[in-house]
Amino acid sequence: MIVTNSNVFLLQTKNTAYMFRRLESGHLEHLHYGGLLFPNKNDCLNHLDEVAAAVAPKHFNGAGNLNSYSDEYSSVMLEQLTLEMSSFGKGDIRDPFVELTYADGSNTVDFLYECHKVTDGKKPLSTLPSSYAEDTAVLDDKVQQLVVTLKDKEYGARLKLIYSVFPECDVITRSAVLINESKEDIRIDRILSTCVDFNAPSHKFTSFHGRWADEMGKYESICSGGKVVCEELAAGESGSRSNPLVIVSSPSADDFSGDCYGFNLIYSGNHYEALSSNGNSMSRFVSGIQPVGFSWILAPGSKFEAPEAVMTYSDKGMNAMSINMQDFVREHIVRGTWKKKERPILINSWEASYFNFTQNSLLSLAKEAKKCGIELFVMDDGWFGKRNNDTSSLGDWYENKKKLPGGIKELADRITDLGMSFGLWVEPEMVNEDSDLYRSHPEWAVTVPGHPHSKGRNQMNLDLTRDDVQDYVIDTMKKVFSAGKVSYVKWDMNRIFSDRYSTALAPDKQGEFQHRYYIGLYRIMKELTESFPEILFEGCSAGGNRFDLGILCYFPQIWGSDDTDAMCRVDIQRGYSYGYPASTIGAHVSACPNHQTLNTVPMETRFEVAAAGCFGYELNLCDMSEADKKLVSDQVEYYKKHRKLFQFGDYYRLPDNSYIIVSKDKKKAVAFVVEKNARPNNDYRCLRTVGLDDHKLYNMTGRKVPHSLKDFGSLVNTQTPIHVKQDGILHTIMDKVVNMSGEEQKETATGASFNNHGVALNSSFCGTGNNEGTRIMRTGDTRLYLFEQA
Predict the structure, then answer these.
(1) What is the pLDDT of residue 400?
(2) Structure confidence at residue 708 (pLDDT)
(3) Residue 42, SS3?
(4) Could you tell me which of 516, 508, 507 has the C-alpha nearest to residue 185?
(5) What is the model's pLDDT at position 717?
(6) Partners of 192 in the beta sheet?
(7) Within 10 Å of residue 699's Cβ, how many Cβ atoms?
(8) Which of 85, 557, 11 is closest to 306 using CA atoms?
(9) 236 and 517 Cβ atoms separated by less than 8 Å
(10) Residues facing 186 on adjacent strands
């Protein structure tokens, strides 16, 4: 809902309100972002001015060495105002929203209110991906858009601030469009997407950082003065180093309480998020394109669109904020055939064979997967050109006939004849020097002419700022995706950028390279996903190096991390949960010792961790024992039974790295418990749920975890009349005939009981005995508990 009387602007969702007003000077003063200001919608228009006056800060005049805006408005001092948009030159010296250099060299920018317009629905950006709204929403849930136009009367520039209100998921988005209506070029040095000022210092800034194979670590800082920054400075991607998802909250806020503001950016390139606090006891949050390395020459009559920023608020802690974000991503970012469609269980060939495979070896793996109930077979890297390692052939998207004599078509036909779907891996944004493509078009590689180039994984980026390169990628990928019955595509991008330069851009426009690259990439993705709407696309960039809302506008899921170690994935996937739903996160069961860490955890743990996402396997089933293949079959059966819940339920974080996923109708839930540090004689553990319906009665059932007699080692001798050598012949025979299934736990209670107190889990093994009720959870063990309405 958007209500305005042309002086005050109120943007209200189901549970939140955002308010700003137009000052007499023409500046926009931010007044409120938080809980509802008008619980009764009918009162809005009649009392806008009164409420705005009540909540607005009361400023004093003549504040020391602050600058007055002008002689006409001498009491307006921009540094002490909470502003909707900020710039340098007229007294505001805080982090600016926009920096421009005009043709005369001036960088004083003075945008003032000109007009506004409110419309129903959501108009998309024309050059960048953005959120969208369905036309089927009821009146109270309808998305509305506010466009406020500002003008710098001195230089013929206009700035449109665009606000979109998504009532049902408590989200407001912001973006900006700069228009050059003068007769000379304007250089954009910085243009961000959102700016929120707070009349208080000392907020907590939560951001997510890491590196390849160790993404989404959660970090917290209290900003009581100065600035805290989350940014991807030069990698050219949204980044494993710093994800664009950040949270600004009260210092004591946690998953269950406190004021929390969630922010994200619908963009895949270098980004910038900063929280600063100044001497006037105010804070400012800004987010948008990374200014470092960016510039844009805006010609007369042209416009520039900034990416869309996403904002949500909750006074009930980070879990509630996360549910808002997850709902928004599912409903207004992900689109197309796979928006609400359950994702298939897949097996990927990468960790099973890497580059070393033949058509027959792939078919053998597929046949074993089919026996286990797996639905989709994915052929990973190594199928094209002369690709036997990572030094050659990127760009040469034709089949390696030594590996695939009948090409993609024959292999896809053989796979589909088994009753499975077929998918493959591509990396279209890259080129190797040892490739036919590079030999034909060296100018298509991103390099600085005449200078040495820094490579990553023996490869270079293709220059997607060029239309001819975009056309090549589109045409070659269309041929690949049409070569056989392709149902799934894993789209990879395995290096960051260096030596950013395009021979197609003038020297003074090289600062436009990175943004133009993503405009080109988004054009490619849009055309391919619209041409192949039935294909399930999964984004990947050396794992989670480009896990962002821009990619999710085209690809409904993204590979979470190249690290498949279950204990690492507990933390990585928990990090993603702060802003991304489980249906967007690719997660696989892999072999042990793990190929990234050499850690070993039980097969059950690997399954239960990977279940909270788009689930699959990445190991060699052909080498597994029949007993382990039976475990896989049981896991697949369990996941299929509860797949909709795992992928599309509401994900709440619980203490001690646990979680619970609750169906939207609250009739069903699954909770996950992990033991990261087993201690002796630590008998009591309580599982306290979140999100169940207090008024419903639930049956809780623990998943029975298979155990092996060998898990007890030499303790077997406390129960046998003769000595049994650990791991010896007799021990092995006994293990095959003795059933050691895990504990069974069943409880019935109200949702209120589970939510407000919790359920005591069965007593744990403590070295002095074991029975059918003993909970055995070693370091690295996990357990799933299913809740179903009675």
Answers:
(1) 97
(2) 83
(3) helix
(4) 508
(5) 84
(6) 288
(7) 13
(8) 85
(9) yes
(10) 298
Provide the 3-class DSSP secondary structure of residue 180: strand
Q: How far is CA 443 from CA 217, 435, 450, 475, in A?
A: 38, 13, 12, 19
Indicate which residues carry an active-site annotation.
492, 562
Quick one: tokens of 67?
């600058």
How confident is the model over 354-409, as pLDDT tens digits?
A: 999 999 999 999 999 999 999 999 999 999 999 999 999 999 999 999 999 999 99
506 Cβ contact partners less than 8 Å away, ≥ 6 residues apart: none
β-pair partners for 157: 152, 180
pLDDT of residue 771: 79
Give the per-residue pLDDT at 770: 75
Please name every residue paired with 9 in a beta bridge, in sequence order, or none if there are none.
Answer: 4, 20
Tokens linked to 526: 């849009």
The stretches in the chain having pLDDT less than 50 are: none
Per DSSP bridges, beta strands 346-348 and 557-559 are unpaired
> Is the dihedral angle over the CA atoms 771, 777, 781, 786 positive or is it negative?
positive
Task: Residue 97: name the closest of 282, 281, 306, 242 by CA.
Answer: 306
pLDDT at 63: 65
Q: 247: how many CB neighbours lie within 10 A of its CB? A: 25
Residue 368: name the closest of 382, 349, 395 by CA: 349
Indicate the pairing of strand 346-348 with strand 376-379.
parallel
Cβ-count burial 145-175 (b if 16+ within 10 Å, e if not): bbbbbbbbeebbbbbbbbbbbbbbbbbbbbb
List Cα–Cα distances, 11 to 266, 299, 622, 753, in angstroms: 21, 34, 58, 38
Decide the pairing of beta strands 144-152 and 296-298. unpaired
pLDDT at 137: 64
- Give the residue carrying structure tokens 């421009």: 100
Residue 388 CA: distances (Å) to CA of 228, 393, 394, 422:
45, 9, 11, 22
Kindly write down the DSSP assignment for every residue of 414-427, as one continuous string: HHHHTT-EEEEEE-
Please count the CA atoms within 13 angstroms of the CA of 262 that sit on its side-chain side: 35
